[in-house]
């Protein structure tokens, strides 16, 4: 009993709190700690499919499946147009300097209604080099571009090479 009294007195001396207040605060801190920990998932136990399962269980529409990019090889410019996102079953493609990239993972940018939808199904080299939304610049023709405009285009190409899978190249009609 003496030990109990000493412990309680020490607690009050060091914390300035009564034992009741001390234990209440400690319990609250434990609850907050557990709640915050519950918001995170241990990387080893992370299951990427879980949110989809949760969406089905809650009767919510499932996010569209993004399939693995398919290699198309040589593609004519006219054929590339079919991959502008108007057919949701087809991948979303875009070309820079004749190289075709699968940009399906950025449907929010290039899909119908997206801010950069006009680039989909096209070689947008000139528009990107000039940072232009003019439909006339939606072409792979880079003739007459200045050194610095070609540099801008080069930066875009590097960004695309890093972010997207190359699935083919444009060939003359
Ligand atoms: C007011 C001017 C603009 C603003 C505020 C703006 C803003 C943005 C933002 C916030 C992103 C998303 C970046 C990311 O999350 O990776 C983006 C992406 C992009 N922007 Fe712009 N932008 C502007 C003008 C332009 C212009 C003029 C062009 C070309 C003609 C352009 C082409 C793009 C492209 C192609 C992407 C997507 C890149 C990707 O696939 O990751 N933007 N922009």
From TrEMBL:
TM ranges: 20-41
Cellular compartments annotated: Endoplasmic reticulum
Protein name: Cytochrome b5 heme-binding domain-containing protein
Signal peptide (UniProt feature, chain positions): none
Subcellular location, principal: endoplasmic reticulum
Keyword 4Fe-4S among UniProt keywords: no
Similarity remark: Belongs to the cytochrome b5 family. MAPR subfamily.
């Amino acid at each position: 009993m003496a030990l109990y009294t000493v412990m309680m007195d020490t607690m009050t001396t060091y914390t300035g709190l009564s034992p009741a207040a001390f234990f209440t605060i400690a319990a609250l801190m434990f609850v907050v700690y557990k709640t915050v920990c519950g918001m995170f998932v241990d990387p080893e136990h992370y299951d990427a499919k879980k949110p989809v399962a949760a969406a089905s269980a809650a009767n919510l529409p499932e996010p569209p499946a993004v399939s693995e990019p398919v290699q198309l090889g040589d593609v004519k410019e006219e054929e590339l147009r079919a991959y502008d996102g108007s057919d949701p079953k087809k991948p979303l493609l875009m070309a820079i300097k004749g190289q075709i990239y699968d940009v399906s993972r950025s449907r929010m940018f290039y899909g119908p209604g997206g801010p950069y939808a006009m680039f989909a199904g096209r070689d947008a080299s000139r528009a990107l080099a000039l940072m232009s939304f003019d439909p006339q610049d939606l072409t792979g023709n880079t003739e007459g571009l200045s050194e610095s405009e070609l540099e801008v285009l080069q930066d875009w190409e590097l960004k695309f090479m890093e972010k997207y899978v190359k699935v083919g190249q444009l060939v003359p009609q």
